[in-house]
Design brief:
mainly alpha; 20 helices
Length: about 425
């Protein structure tokens, strides 16, 4: 007879291969486990509901999604892009640098790599490929790569998910992502400059310095969003969930009142899109909560911790193994599944090794974002391929240099914990 846990895994993998969402597959596999193993199957439903309804932090996710969708339907992206172009468009490969900077700014508002790629990505790709200045494959590749910064710079939906499974402060995790996010952006800007010199990409039209104040003024309401959001969190005025609500309301108000760029139909479409995205994340979280009950009942975290203990890993060796594991898993699993399923299994081992959980959270999220651009199932690759109608093979060819640059950044983030924890400690973190 097949072991109940093995049967559960077979069902999850089989359903996922046949096209079911990972969340639904985990719910089905967990129910089968509970029926076969003996406990009342109603435990799964109870565990799922308690996990969803007793976690206030989860409310931040749909609100950040709504804020990102509202920003995408308004003219915020256009104004931010114009601001970025005025700042860095004057350098060789300027529109590539604009791509990096605009993603960096937009990431301080959306918290989602997909929202960045879909919203800002469509505009910047069209701008880069106009008049044949850049190839479609390069524009798609750099857009996919820069979108990975979105969930590293706060706010961040993956950081919220990690906070839930690790019982860490969302505010400290947000602070920990700031410097790594800037490092990732810098690594991609350097790589873009090297490629621009090699391929002789053009220098774009220089925006006169006298126009900078006017362009900045037009973009200022949008640029104030991350200031209000993060200022509210770190001043103690708002919780991250309340800050997410304020971000959504602020994005709506400036889009409707200040920029006058959102119609009632647009707002309805944003609400509809947010509802779909929230439902998708909700199913994934519900499935993970249920399956984590199965994992806990099987004492899998303890088993993994004991197994790793036998190898007598040093902290550096352990982090190398974890990075390789997450990079490989990122090629076939979505980031949310990695955060909600794999991380809870590893947390006891991480604590036993004396690794700071906030630092580890940044490592995990950066790896999950790299998974979005690594073949064969990198979601951002498919999104940008759809935007450009470019064969995905060409995009993969052009994205490898950016993956290499991000891997260098990942190594610094992994092995220099003081770099990651500098800002959280300034804000009172004791780790």
């Amino acid at each position: 007879m097949i072991d109940p846990f093995t049967l559960s895994l077979i069902i999850i993998v089989a359903l996922s291969l046949f096209g079911a969402s990972v969340g639904l597959a985990m719910i089905a596999g967990s129910f089968v486990y509970l029926i076969v193993a003996g406990p009342d199957s109603s435990i799964a439903a109870e565990t799922m509901l308690q996990g969803l309804f007793n976690n206030y932090t989860l409310l931040a996710i749909p609100l950040f999604i709504l804020a990102a969708d509202i920003m995408n339907i308004g003219s915020l992206a256009d104004r931010l892009l114009r601001f970025a172009q005025a700042l860095v468009g004057r350098f060789r490969g300027g529109l590539g640098h604009v791509n990096v900077v605009s993603s960096l700014i937009f990431s301080g508002m959306s918290g989602s790599a997909v929202a960045d790629a879909v919203g800002m990505g469509k505009i910047i790709i069209n701008l880069m490929t106009r008049d044949g200045k850049y190839t479609k494959s390069y524009a798609a590749a750099i857009t996919a790569a820069t979108a990975t910064v979105g969930p590293i710079i706060p706010p961040s939906i993956p950081m919220v998910l990690y906070a839930i499974v690790s019982d860490q402060s969302v505010g400290f995790l947000f602070a920990a992502g700031m410097l790594p996010g800037l490092l990732m952006a810098l690594s991609m800007a350097i790589m873009n400059y090297i490629i621009a010199r090699k391929r002789d990409f053009p220098v774009d039209d220089v925006v006169p310095v006298r126009d900078l104040p006017r362009i900045t003024w037009k973009a200022l309401p949008a640029l104030m969003l991350p200031v209000i959001l993060l200022g509210g969190i770190y001043s103690g005025v708002m919780t991250p969930t309340e800050a997410a609500a304020v971000a959504a309301l602020y994005a709506l108000l400036i889009s409707v009142i200040f920029y006058r760029s959102v119609s009632l139909k647009d707002f309805y479409e944003a609400l509809l899109g947010s509802a779909r995205s929230t439902a998708s994340v909700g199913v994934l979280v519900a499935g993970a909560i249920t399956f984590n009950y199965v994992i806990a009942r099987e004492q899998l975290p303890v088993t993994i911790s004991d197994m790793l203990g036998q190898y007598d890993f040093t902290k550096v060796q352990f982090l190398i193994v974890v990075n390789i594991l997450f990079l490989v898993l990122g090629m076939v699993l979505e980031g949310g599944a990695i955060l909600l399923i794999i991380v809870p299994i590893l947390i006891p081992s991480v604590q036993a090794m004396g690794i700071d959980l906030v630092h580890f959270g940044v490592i995990v999220v950066v790896n999950a974002m790299l998974g979005l651009i690594t073949p064969p199932y990198g979601l951002l690759l498919f999104i940008t391929a759809n935007i450009t109608d470019e064969p995905i093979g060409r995009i993969i060819r052009d994205i490898w240099p950016f993956i290499a640059a991000l891997l260098v950044a990942l190594m610094i983030i992994t092995f220099v914990p003081d770099f990651v924890l500098f800002l959280p400690r300034l804000l009172g973190y004791q780790g």
